[in-house]
Amino acid sequence: MKFGFFDDEKKEYVITTPDTPLPWINYLGSQDFFSLISNTCGGYSFYKDAKLLRLTRYRYNNLPADSNGKYYYIKEGDVIWNPGTMPTRTPLDEYQCRHGLGYSRFHGIKNQLSADLLAFVPVDTPCEINVLTLKNQSASAKKLSLFSYVEFCLWNAVDDMTNFQRNLSIGEVEIQGSAIYHKTEYRERRNHYSFFSVNTPIDGFDTSRDEFLGVRRGNDRPLAVEQGKCTGSVASGWYPIASHQIDLVLAPGEEKELIFLLGYCENPQEEKWEAPNVIRKTTALAMQEKYHTSAQVKKAFQDLNHYWEDLLSRFFVNSQDPHVNRMANIWNQYQCMVTFNLSRSASYYESGTGRGMGFRDSCQDLLGFVHLVPERARERILDIAATQFEDGSAYHQYQPLTKKGNLDIGSGFNDDPLWLIAAASAYLKETGDFSILDEMVAFDCDTSKAQPFFQHLLRSFHYTCTHLGPHKLPLIGRADWNDCLNLNCFSSEPGEPFQTTGPSEGPVAESVFIAGMFVKYGREFQTICEKYGHTEEALQAKDAIDAMYQAVLTSGWDGDWFLRAYDATSQKIGSHECEEGQIFIEPQGFCVMAGIGVKEGLAEKALDSVKERLDTKYGIMVQQPAYTRYYLNLGEISSYPPGYKENAGIFCHNNPWISIGETMIGRGSRAFQIYKKTCPSYIENISQIHRTEPYIYSQMIAGKDAPRHGEAKNSWLTGTAAWTFVNLSQAILGIQPSYDGLCVDPCIPADFGDFTVTRRFRGAVYHLFISNPDHVEKGVKYLEIDGKQISGNLIPFEEGKKEYQVTIHMG
């Protein structure tokens, strides 16, 4: 069952009913100002940091769900409705929501009055623009009143929803013309404020929530709207909002366009204390003037469209499969940019108040966006590295506004250091910019301890070398990629919090997954050392990598698949010897991606075991059999019901690892089959089962042991976006950046057909035509570069060359 359709030409997903299984959202913003907006106009806005600089309030776990946002109430006679249907839920004669790249459009008609709403964040200004166009489609004049509505958050989103004894006394606003200014806490400790304005004279306003809604009323039936008149309230303490009243009379066929602006402003720090209770409106007035007319807003919207056109032109495929084209050219890359901007901080499943930017998360996300914004990727890598400790370990998360490590989450996830090498190698391959290795970068944000970035990579590598267990495999620490596999934990009494084992006892739990990471990214580090002129470090790295490779073969192989780990007492995890949890997806993917067991014939065996024991019609599960009871030695993983999350759920994030592994051994049809099972476009027709957005990847899907097998959760902010794009663009389609140029090594189904790719790489445009007359799944006979035939599959990089015409002959 579908609830909409793809409009590929306009690069939009069109939702045709407000009654989607879950709120289907979009993200507005590309730099510092962001808004989340659902298909019924729910959502919220913030500047840079969703916790510390939240502009508008949102209530998670609210009933009805998704019932706070930026709303426009239209009152005509006794009928009150909204263009996106919420919050009044008045049935409309027509409804449509179009989510596009950085914007959303809403269309509603009620009683021959149409309302069209365009919402977007301009590229270069910290504000959200809402353009509302009302049109009388009837044969007689219409008299109506329009009421806008936003509810301000008191900046710190956690304090806003917890510290009521203070917050119910500090709300403060100021009204000037058609602009309502939110200046709560400005007098005390902030030099910023927000405003909500409209580009026309108003007939009334309210800034007190209780006065506008009415005491004990919800926003589904505001008292002021019912009565047809705002009260002119000025919030003092209590709950500040912004509502404009605009009375209109529309002749037959007449339309009226209104431009609303939600803006964020900062004043120079030195001005703050001159008159701390008076905001300086210079910036706000300039912003309102900048977007006052239709022509100005149209230009800003065109600039936004050009911004996305330029980004998405950097990788473009034309194949015989419309799903591949749609996902690769539009939605997958778009989601990669959203995860670049927000990591895991703010979605409809992440409240924006806790996680911030993840060390591992942001490094992985970089794999999917480095080709889009290499200069910003460079900045992100250095930001991440600055949170690292001197021994090579790292805070697991950091706050985007302060760049400080998150003390609540702390450190001890022993896969984190290696992800920094993964990000660095992706950047170096994409750009060839080895100067980043010389950049001075702090440790733990302490600039007095700054070292060249290369030292950060060296310490990341050596952290694993110096943290090995009794089987010479890497210590898992608090956890590895699977945050819920806590093998160094125990609890003496039921209900007590987990504690790590003491120094005398370890912790000694080991991870085969990290071993696979170490071999894969250790080889990247070795190459970086060689190209950077550090021969001795390269030789030392090679020895450590070879030793780890052998340790995996000796102690990490279970007979038909790779073990997952050893717990703190050296008991096997992910073995046929286990009662439950006998095989895990992670080491099968990463060990094969690292090349472990390929020449020994073990890789094919491991991947066959994945197909036999972990695969379902909706994707590959994390492990099997699911844990049916709680295991003290495993930690959080067994706390989930069977089939959900890490306990045998389908993590879309690591399904690409298996697909990439299949391409390592040349099985293109199987790799593509795995890709299709979790790809939103292919499964749009089961949206009633899948439930999350059919244009965006989710973190997980319920496994076969769950009552709701096939139901997805946690959409948008997930490493699935980056890893799936890497899988499709580099492993399946085979367009692979390398240190010396662009490699082309497709691994596709035999019937996939010929295809073309346009790829921008290091300042040049590569026009690639992949020909497969023999219908092979993998193999390149030769290349023709600008008419000249060469052997191999590397297109050597030539400094200064701006365009390449390349034919790749598979066979």
Automatic annotation (TrEMBL):
<keyword id="KW-0328">Glycosyltransferase</keyword>
<dbReference type="InterPro" id="IPR010383">
    <property type="entry name" value="Glyco_hydrolase_94_b-supersand"/>
</dbReference>
<dbReference type="Pfam" id="PF17167">
    <property type="entry name" value="Glyco_hydro_94"/>
</dbReference>
<dbReference type="GO" id="GO:0016740">
    <property type="term" value="F:transferase activity"/>
</dbReference>
<dbReference type="InterPro" id="IPR033432">
    <property type="entry name" value="GH94_catalytic"/>
</dbReference>
<dbReference type="InterPro" id="IPR012341">
    <property type="entry name" value="6hp_glycosidase-like_sf"/>
</dbReference>
<dbReference type="InterPro" id="IPR008928">
    <property type="entry name" value="6-hairpin_glycosidase_sf"/>
</dbReference>
<feature type="domain" description="Glycosyl hydrolase 94 supersandwich">
    <location>
        <begin position="11"/>
        <end position="270"/>
    </location>
</feature>
<feature type="domain" description="Glycosyl hydrolase 94 catalytic">
    <location>
        <begin position="307"/>
        <end position="734"/>
    </location>
</feature>
<dbReference type="Pfam" id="PF06165">
    <property type="entry name" value="GH94_b-supersand"/>
</dbReference>
<protein>
    <submittedName>
        <fullName>Glycosyl transferase</fullName>
    </submittedName>
</protein>
<dbReference type="InterPro" id="IPR037825">
    <property type="entry name" value="GH94N_CBP"/>
</dbReference>
<dbReference type="InterPro" id="IPR037018">
    <property type="entry name" value="GH65_N"/>
</dbReference>
<dbReference type="InterPro" id="IPR011013">
    <property type="entry name" value="Gal_mutarotase_sf_dom"/>
</dbReference>
<keyword id="KW-0808">Transferase</keyword>
<dbReference type="InterPro" id="IPR052047">
    <property type="entry name" value="GH94_Enzymes"/>
</dbReference>
